[in-house]
């Protein structure tokens, strides 16, 4: 059996998908070509692209008045591409950002280079919630505290802070467009497109391999890109060319397309959400029952995808990781900015993986606690 892979990204892919890609590597559907060797404008790849878009639309119930774009540069390129495309919308070059962790802080900093970009709210400082002190970036600023200017072109938030392990999904209905970074929780739960006007994600966490960025954007937000926006990053031009303005990342689109088909066979996003709830609850329940391990995120905004935890004895971190690896549990090391451990439990990781992790953690606690 393959070991269980808890990487935060690039991360685990469904075995079925990897096996199918291996089978089709030399000859895709009798074409005599690998997908990597095909013209992006040929009928074979057009079919792959069209099916990937349609399957993604089906899975996320993307309304018809939204464009689905397949881009490159990852989520961090979007930190610049979003303002270059959207800042001018309301005519004041303004946007407001909610900062709830490392990723949204980066988005905010990058966007400030392009216009009058302000903080709508931040959880960087610690706060009191239910008589508990919550450390910085371990809670989420609720929408009623956001300071949104009526003249802003959009508000930017991160749905799931991959490093801090904070997830928020209860979006308000705002009077300005809401742009959401869903890099690490896309397809793990539904997205409410009656409140979200644009969602974007690097594919490499929960949707496929690195190299593809998925952008889902309401069509009436297109067409207002700044003069200096690179044409290849202009949403309107990318949308008008069916993501073929320049050569798209063909192989990652194919792989993501296989993941979308796999998700459909698994019961779609609703089934995934249920599974992810079950998986994360199992791990949180154990963490909360133990004095040896600790997750510090405010319970109502704990991520279902990325679960950071600390050992009571940090001097055992290296041993924990070495023994975990021996037990077939890979890539549990926490992000260097926060230390400790992190279990990323994306769609492709089944409940059995979390059960194996909890069993290992119990055993480790019994030996060293
Ligand atoms: C990983 C990640 C990013 C950065 O993605 P790149 O594709 O490496 O640029 C941004 N936001 C979130 C929420 C992430 O998890």
UniProtKB/TrEMBL annotation:
Pathway in which this enzyme or protein is active: Amino-acid biosynthesis; L-serine biosynthesis; L-serine from 3-phospho-D-glycerate: step 2/3; Cofactor biosynthesis; pyridoxine 5'-phosphate biosynthesis; pyridoxine 5'-phosphate from D-erythrose 4-phosphate: step 3/5
CDD domains: PSAT_like
Binding site for pyridoxal 5'-phosphate: 103, 162, 181, 204, 246-247
Coarse class of the protein's main subcellular location: cytoplasm
Aminotransferase class V domain residues: 4-357
PROSITE patterns cross-referenced by the UniProt entry: AA_TRANSFER_CLASS_5
ATP-binding keyword on record: no
Subcellular location(s) per record: Cytoplasm
Cofactor: pyridoxal 5'-phosphate
Cofactor note: Binds 1 pyridoxal phosphate per subunit.
The enzyme's E.C. designation: 2.6.1.52
Reaction it catalyzes: O-phospho-L-serine + 2-oxoglutarate = 3-phosphooxypyruvate + L-glutamate; 4-(phosphooxy)-L-threonine + 2-oxoglutarate = (R)-3-hydroxy-2-oxo-4-phosphooxybutanoate + L-glutamate
Residues bearing the modification N6-(pyridoxal phosphate)lysine: 205
Subunit structure: Homodimer.
Protein name (record): Phosphoserine aminotransferase
Organism of this sequence: Paenalcaligenes hermetiae
The gene coding this protein: serC
């Amino acid at each position: 059996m393959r070991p269980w892979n808890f990487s935060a990204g690039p991360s685990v892919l469904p075995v079925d998908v990897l096996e199918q890609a291996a089978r089709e590597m030399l000859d895709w559907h009798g074409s005599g070509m690998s997908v990597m060797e095909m013209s992006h404008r040929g009928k074979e790849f057009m079919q792959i692209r069209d099916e990937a878009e349609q399957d993604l639309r089906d899975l996320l119930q993307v309304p018809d008045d939204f464009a689905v774009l397949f881009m490159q540069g990852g989520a961090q390129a979007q930190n610049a591409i979003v303002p270059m495309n959207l800042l001018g919308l309301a005519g004041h070059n303004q946007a407001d950002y909610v900062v709830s962790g490392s990723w949204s802080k980066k988005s905010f900093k990058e966007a400030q280079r392009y216009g009058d970009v302000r903080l709508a709210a931040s959880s960087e400082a610690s706060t009191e919630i239910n008589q508990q002190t919550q450390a910085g970036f371990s809670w989420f600023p609720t929408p009623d505290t956001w300071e949104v200017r009526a003249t802003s072109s959009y508000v930017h938030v991160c749905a799931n802070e991959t490093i801090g392990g904070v997830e928020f999904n209860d979006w308000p209905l705002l009077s300005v467009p809401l742009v959401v970074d869903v890099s690490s929780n896309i397809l793990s739960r539904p997205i409410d497109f009656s409140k979200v006007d644009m969602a974007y994600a690097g594919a490499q966490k929960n949707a496929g391999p690195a190299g593809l960025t998925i952008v889902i954007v309401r069509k009436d937000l297109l067409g207002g890109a700044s003069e200096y926006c690179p044409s290849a990053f202009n949403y309107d031009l990318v949308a008008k060319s069916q993501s073929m303005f320049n050569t798209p990342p063909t192989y990652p689109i194919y792989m993501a397309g296989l993941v979308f088909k796999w998700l459909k066979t698994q019961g779609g996003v609703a089934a995934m959400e249920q599974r992810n709830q079950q998986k994360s609850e199992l791990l949180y329940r154990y963490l909360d029952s133990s004095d040896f391990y600790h997750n510090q995120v405010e319970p109502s905004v704990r991520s279902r995808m990325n679960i950071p935890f600390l050992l009571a004895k940090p001097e055992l971190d290296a041993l924990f990781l070495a023994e975990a690896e021996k037990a077939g549990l890979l890539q549990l090391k926490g992000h260097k900015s926060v230390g400790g451990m992190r279990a990323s439990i994306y769609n492709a990781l089944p409940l059995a993986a979390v059960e194996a992790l909890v069993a290992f953690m119990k055993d480790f606690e019994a030996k060293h606690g």
